[in-house]
Automatic annotation (TrEMBL):
It comes from Mucilaginibacter mali. The keyword Transmembrane helix applies. This is Glycosyltransferase RgtA/B/C/D-like domain-containing protein. Keywords: Membrane, Transmembrane, Transmembrane helix. It comes from the Bacteria. The chain crosses the membrane at residues 12-30, 85-105, 112-131, 161-187, 199-219, 275-299, 306-323, 329-345, 352-371. The lineage of its organism: Bacteria, Pseudomonadati, Bacteroidota, Sphingobacteriia, Sphingobacteriales.
Length: 427
């Protein structure tokens, strides 16, 4: 059920927060083209698809889906491929995510939920990068919204639902959670009828067991042919250093960082060295609290009656078994955590504890957004604070010097790939 609740009046402090978020976000559109490892990979694939790289280039065998590189290619063809356009697209996607989560689930104030989403340091970091995660989060929610409409006998939504689902999968393979979530939702909504029909129940159990057996039988082959399955290392879930408990701890750390709104690496700089050993247990405990609070709100408010919850359940399953730490993969599911935190703030007691959490979250988010804005509007600050290695910083310094001097330099696409990308698309 998609609910529409009345908008509540906002205190002055909240209005100021919303204004700051809007101003600082828009200022980040001025950022130079920010590249990281994945962004470079996507540009490499785009250049490969344009026929600008030799057939032997490593971009030809990169396992990343081609949906985002194709978007870059068409933007380039239209003369719109530049840092400002890509950041604007990501910000628009982030705002759309906030709007859609409040359409799929009941929320009193969509502006506040959207602002809290945009204040997540994880979103702030990735909104400015030319990577597809924000677009994927938006397409996942938009596809789910269309399917929710279609399942209410509004068949006109079926075609856009199919197309947007295909686009989501083409952006990131994890988009497969959309059809999986629909299947689980249909089983849930029809469970009373299924359990009364022994033939239907037997058939359902048979299909599930057959699918599991077939998957396990083909697992070795899948790992040999597909990098995702190889990285999952499903055999390692039972034994080895990356067993299930180790993976769960990694993702509890991610959830703790999400709630505190600061990465562990930055938190280390604020804590005295003698107390540094407490940081990781504190973050994991915070993550466990975030998870427990989310489960509580889901049960208390019966969110399982909504299709989006089942899509998120499938996505969360992928997150849990993923053997690596990477907060970027939380981006599609951050809306659920923020929604539950916002709902808890309205419903739960003691309110002072949640007010403290909310204050910490907002202040850290505004700090992260201000930090990002400083990098975006000042080249000196950019060179000092951005770049994941000395070679990358040197490339940016050379690029900025070329722009200041007005020198037209043609860089070798094979030997100076980063400088070529910056020269062509940082506009």
């Amino acid at each position: 059920m998609i609910s529409s609740l009345p908008v509540v009046k906002m205190p002055l402090a909240v209005k100021i927060m919303l204004a700051l978020v809007a101003i600082l976000l828009l200022a980040n559109i001025l950022s130079p083209l920010r590249l990281n490892t994945d962004a470079i990979r996507y540009f490499n694939i785009m250049l490969y698809l344009k026929g600008m790289l030799p057939p032997t280039d490593y971009a030809g065998s990169d396992f990343l889906p081609h949906g985002y590189p194709l978007l870059l290619k068409y933007l380039d063809k239209a003369g719109l491929l530049n840092s400002k356009a890509m950041i604007a697209i990501n910000i628009l996607a982030g705002v759309t995510v906030g709007y859609l989560i409040c359409r799929l689930l009941p929320a009193k104030n969509r502006l506040i939920v959207t602002a809290l989403l945009l204040l997540s340091y994880i979103n702030i970091k990735h909104l400015i990068l030319p990577i597809p995660d924000e677009l994927f989060a938006g397409s996942l929610l938009l596809a789910t919204w269309c399917w929710a409409k279609a399942l209410k006998d509004k068949w006109i939504y079926c075609l856009p639902a199919f197309l947007i689902t295909a686009a989501a999968i083409y952006l990131r393979t994890a988009g497969i959670v959309i059809p999986c979530g629909i299947v689980l939702f249909l089983i849930y909504t029809n469970w009373p009828a299924i359990k009364k029909n022994k033939y239907l129940l037997t058939a359902l159990i048979g299909v599930v067991l057959t699918a599991i057996a077939l998957f396990l039988y083909r697992l070795k082959g899948l790992e040999q042919r597909n990098d995702y399955f190889r990285y999952l290392n499903l055999e390692g879930i039972v034994h080895g250093p990356n067993n299930l408990s180790a993976r769960v701890l990694l993702h509890l750390q991610e959830m703790g960082e999400l709630l505190l709104n600061i990465p562990c690496s930055k938190l280390n700089t604020f804590v005295p060295h003698p107390l540094a050993f407490l940081i990781m247990p504190l973050i994991i405990a915070t993550g466990l609290f975030m998870f427990a609070l989310t489960v509580y709100i889901i049960i208390r408010t019966e969110l399982y009656r909504h299709l989006i919850l089942w899509v998120y359940l499938c996505y969360m399953t992928i997150i849990i078994i993923w053997p690596f730490y990477d907060t970027r993969f939380l981006i599609p599911i951050i809306p659920l955590f923020i929604y539950c935190l916002y709902t808890a703030f309205e419903r739960c007691r003691p309110l002072w504890a949640l007010k403290l959490l909310a204050t910490v979250y907002v202040l850290m988010g505004l700090f992260a957004l201000s930090y990002s804005t400083a990098i975006s509007i000042n080249q000196s600050v950019f060179l000092k604070l951005y770049g994941f290695d000395k070679e990358m910083t040197a490339s940016y310094r050379q690029h900025f010097e070329d722009k200041r001097s007005g020198t037209v330099v043609v860089y070798d696409i094979n030997k100076q790939r980063v400088l070529y990308i910056l020269n062509a698309y940082d506009k």
